[in-house]
Amino acid sequence: MQDADDVLERLERWYAAQCNGDWEHTYGIKLDTLDNPGWSFKVDLTDTYLLGRSFEKIKEAQSDDHTDFFHCEVRDRQFVGYCPPSRLREVLSIFLGWAEAPVRE
Asked: InterPro entries, per this entry (predicted)?
């Protein structure tokens, strides 16, 4: 697993690269908490090179007590990830791995 600082630096670079004077005014990245407890991470893909790129959904079965859940997918022009408190770095790494991967033809 990569260092947390590295993941944040990569996210900062990705975000800065999308800022073009327009995108950041309408779209962006949202990080929020859930009452499970957990995290919600959303990235608007509109007007980015990622819009239309395929992503295979990741979904782990939820435990009976709703404390162990993990979900990443692209829907409604957004990358969305939901996870328990201890797995935020993993969601960010999944997004960045997908965003930074070269496009296969």
From this structure: Imm53 (IPR028228)
Report the alpha-carbon distance of residue 74 to residue 54 in Å, rounded.
Answer: 8
Q: Write the pLDDT tens digit of every residue in 26-44.
A: 999 999 999 989 999 999 9
| Residue that is written with structure tokens 């007007």 in the block | 47
Distance CA 88, CA 32 (A): 11
Place of tokens 């930074």: 100
Share of the chain above pLDDT 70, in %: 90
Buried b / exposed e along 4-26 (16+ C-beta atoms within 10 A): eeebeebbeebeeebeeeebeee
Structure tokens at 98: 């997908």
Annotated domain spans of the chain: 28-50+63-87
Q: Which of 98, 93, 97, 96 is CA-nearest to residue 4?
A: 93
